[in-house]
Amino acid sequence: MPADRPTAETPLAEYGPITPITLPVDGRMPDPATGGSSKAEYDDYFRLIRERPDLAAWSRSCLDVQRQVLADLDLTELSAEDRCDILAGCLVVLHATLDRWVATGGQRRREVA
Question: I need a surface site. Which of 72, 95, 107, 113 has the fewest CB within 10 A?
């Protein structure tokens, strides 16, 4: 029996070719014109799973999504400006993730190989 909403335990086959991704609980991009879309509508549309992943899991998810986006970007009919906007969005996510890694590095001792 398929779940109404995806969860981490939901078999991926139940959602077709779109694999759910993990985002922070407070992560959301509202409709710029109206600001109106509920979290449930947004999550259902994009098949998002909301949970608080650890930093490594979040980083793997970012890398996986960005690899797929970059692989598909040349196959689209998007304008150069739209492609630039997508790449800029990828950089925002990468910078935020790297900032979190750097912040955690100050709390741990560095091991020398």
Answer: 113
